[in-house]
Write a structure and sequence with these properties.
Blueprint: H1 4-15, E1 21-24, H2 29-36, E2 45-49, E3 57-61
Antiparallel strand pairs: 1-3, 2-3
Helix pairs in contact: 1-2
């Protein structure tokens, strides 16, 4: 289980290219999403369902990937 601070740190690491991607477990999704939606650059984060991942989502930071 992740904490709010862990999510903020992960978002910063994605933003600053310290990590390229992060898999959010299904159990952590709602906390992660709530915090992500409060970010000014929320549209730069891309989430893709992990095939066979039981609801896990792979997030990456891709500025400009969406309008």
């Amino acid at each position: 289980m992740v904490t709010e601070q862990m999510v903020l740190d992960l978002l910063d690491e994605l933003r600053n290219n310290k990590i390229e991607e992060y898999v959010v477990k299904k159990a952590d999704f709602f906390l992660f999403r709530d915090i992500l939606m409060k970010q000014e650059d929320k549209k730069s984060f891309r989430g893709v369902i992990v095939p066979g991942g039981g609801g896990d989502i792979l997030y990456s930071y891709q500025p400009g990937w969406t309008a």
